From TrEMBL:
Protein name as it appears in the record: NADH-ubiquinone oxidoreductase chain 4
Organism: Petalocephala chlorophana
Catalytic activity: a ubiquinone + NADH + 5 H(+)(in) = a ubiquinol + NAD(+) + 4 H(+)(out)
Pfam families: Proton_antipo_M (PF00361)
NADH:quinone oxidoreductase/Mrp antiporter transmembrane domain residues: 94-371
UniProt similarity note: Belongs to the complex I subunit 4 family.
Localization: Mitochondrion membrane
An MF annotation (GO) of this entry: NADH dehydrogenase (ubiquinone) activity
Membrane topology annotation: Multi-pass membrane protein
Length: 429
């Protein structure tokens, strides 16, 4: 916490602030990585603690923040980034439902400012309103549920078990806030708008970290209210499994690169939700691996689409064609990340999908009939986007510039952790 407060002060200095903040973040990431939370909660105080889930997501938050800092051009954006990172870290470490809810809501403010302040088109006003009001409206029942639990038990600790209160209404009111954040099909309308209008650093933090808040909240609350969540899991499971296929089909008719990547995020997070709803250890493990792999892969794909946008001034697939002739190295990165997005073996995405399929089959054997078309469609639209943008007749209406070394570094920072984690999959067991 002291290091994060120091970084807040550093952002106000113009003298080598980005380099110092990056160094601070790397030291924090090293310290977090060396901790070994074996028990359910460890390093626990009355307010903050850590377990395997929060440790992994905190490391992911720092990694995405380091990549974002390298792309920032003004100090005001850096202040927003460090403020948001501080809120997210406090939320992942929260041991109390009240502090979790406060940080859950506060993290929305910097994201809205990023979309409204540094977005591209005039439509960013509507995108910011969608983002703000969807999250605020859906999280009000969560606040009422937390107050209800506190009134009944005089405690708002996550370590408690509230088994006596197995209420369907209670679980629905808690789930609504997290299903909008993930987002689930039919509650997803804010995400493509926010992604398309957000600047590159906004898209990176939105895809990399903010979508994972919903999954983290479900894991936290479902371990406390197991009976309530098991009662309603069938409803959410049926909606998610049909929604994942529908969203995958919507991906195939997109012409905007950013929009397609945003819709593919919804499809992947639907799979993540499906594994969490099984309420098994395998399901939680699969969803955690999917969150990490999707956070890095999706953030990398948004960055690649921005590299094309900066050179062609368009995100349309009808204009971004024949890129292999102009930027062959960039084309190689597109190929790698398209393969990672579709879950080609032996990537970490492949292992996460296999684990999720195992948990789904344990929950409901007939889900195999839905899994097979889903995996085919996911691989189809990733292949479609790569072939459509990299091959074909190129346009001569724009001039190209070479890729900067800084952009290669950011892409390597996305790619290397995924390769290294694939070699050490037992860390998630």
């Amino acid at each position: 916490m002291m290091m994060m407060l120091m970084m807040m002060n550093l952002t106000l200095m113009n003298f080598k602030a980005p380099k110092l903040i990056t160094l601070f973040l790397m030291i924090m990431m090293l310290k977090l990585t060396l901790m070994n939370p074996v028990k359910f909660f460890c390093h626990t105080s009355m307010i903050m603690g850590m377990d395997n889930f929060s440790q992994t997501l905190m490391i992911l938050t720092i990694m995405i923040s380091i990549m974002m800092i390298s792309m920032m051009k003004t100090m005001s954006i850096m202040v927003m980034n460090t403020t948001m990172m501080m809120m997210l870290m406090m939320m992942f470490m929260s041991m109390k439902m009240t502090s979790f809810y406060i940080m859950f809501e506060l993290s929305l403010i910097p994201m809205t400012i990023m979309v409204l302040g540094w977005g591209y088109q005039p439509e960013r006003m509507m995108a910011g309103l969608y983002l703000l009001f969807y999250t605020m409206t859906a999280s009000l029942p969560l606040l009422l549920a937390i107050i209800y639990l506190f009134k009944k038990t005089n405690s708002d600790f996550f370590m408690m078990k509230y088994e006596l209160m197995s209420s369907t209404l209670l679980s629905i009111s808690i789930m609504m806030a997290f299903l909008v954040k993930m987002p689930m099909f039919m509650l997803h309308f804010w995400l493509p708008k926010a992604h398309v209008q957000a600047p590159i650093f906004g898209s990176m933090i939105l895809a990399g970290i903010l979508l994972k808040i919903g999954g983290f909240g479900i894991i936290r609350f479902s371990t406390m209210l197991e009976n309530s969540f098991m009662k309603t899991s069938q409803i959410w499971f049926s909606l998610s499994i049909s929604g994942a296929i529908t969203i995958s089909l919507i991906c195939m008719v997109q012409s905007d690169m950013k929009s397609m990547i945003a819709y593919s995020s919804i499809s992947h997070m639907s799979m993540c939700l499906l594994s969490m709803l099984t309420m098994t250890k395998t399901g939680f493990m699969g969803s955690m691996i999917m969150m990490i792999s999707h956070g890095l892969c999706s953030s990398g794909m948004f960055f690649l689409s921005n590299m094309n946008y900066e050179r062609t001034k368009s995100r349309s697939m009808f204009i971004n064609k024949g890129m292999m002739k102009f930027l062959p190295s960039n084309s190689m990165l597109w190929f790698i990340f398209s393969c990672l997005n579709m879950g080609c073996p032996p990537s970490i995405n492949f292992f996460s999908e296999i684990t999720i399929m195992m948990s789904m089959m344990m929950y409901w054997k007939m889900s195999l009939l839905y899994i097979l078309p889903l995996t085919f469609i996911v691989s189809y639209y990733s292949f479609f986007m790569f072939s459509y943008t990299q091959h074909g007749q190129f346009s001569t209406n724009y001039s190209m510039s070479n890729i900067k070394l800084k952009e290669y570094n950011v892409m390597n920072m996305h790619m290397y952790p995924m390769i290294l984690m694939t070699m050490k999959m037992e860390m998630f067991m």
